[in-house]
Write a structure and sequence with these properties.
Elements lengths: L3 E6 L2 E7 H7 E6 L4 H5 L5 E5 L2 E7 L3 H5 L2 E4 L3 H13 L5
Antiparallel strand pairs: 1-2, 3-5, 3-6, 4-5
Length: 94
């Protein structure tokens, strides 16, 4: 079972932590259609499309606040990796 994750880019560590830590820090929201714009206004760190609908990824967001807009759950590791690498390329990850 996977317990810890390290994301690397060109041999340099970009982010690491336990799965539990990452599941608390990052949340994915699949908003209801009427909440797309409200969810986007909460400044997700990454947006992807799944089955023609947006899926928003947030860092350090209030899970209860997000639940008011739709379905909330921890992101898949692959989706988190893509978001972190995008942020790293933009110079936002420390």
């Amino acid at each position: 079972m996977l317990s810890d994750v390290v994301f690397m880019d060109q041999g340099k560590e970009v982010m690491s932590g336990s799965i539990d830590e990452l599941n608390q820090k990052f949340l994915e929201l699949r908003p209801k259609a009427e909440n797309f714009e409200k969810a986007k206004a909460l400044n997700p760190i990454y947006i992807r499309t799944e089955l023609g609908r947006p899926v928003y990824l947030y860092e350090n967001a209030d899970a209860e606040k997000l639940r008011a807009f739709g379905e909330v759950h921890p992101p898949a590791i692959a989706d988190l990796f893509l978001a972190v690498m995008k942020k790293n390329k933009e110079g936002e990850v420390k």
